[in-house]
Amino acid sequence: MQIRRTVRVTESELLQRIRLALGRTVTLFRNNVGQAWIGEIHRRGQEMWIHNPRPLQAGLCRGSADLIGWRRVTVTPEMVGSNIAVFTAIEVKTPRGRVSEEQQAFIDALAADGGIAVVARSVDDALAGVEGRG
Which domains does the chain have, with CATH numbers? Predict the structure, then answer.
């Protein structure tokens, strides 16, 4: 009797594997989206507080993909063999991960406008999506 072990990969590990696998064909950057507070930081022992706090929004926009960047594409002869960069976004999810409505809206909008938009649950998903096979 053979026991099969399923190795669960975290989203962070999967994200790194995808970046490595696509590194020669796509320029990708990690896109962390969130909010933090900035201002004058004061400390006393273990305590810390912010005077005159202001919100700092990080990342491209709410719902934007985990990996963003571009894929270089050589256009048709009618365009004199120019190279263009096609905006590329990869939303990385584990097999059980859920795509939020905002994330799906971002992916759908990018795809509708001619960008490369992929939800990847594996390296193979990412490769297929970027190569137009997904």
Answer: 11-34+60-130 (3.40.1350.10)
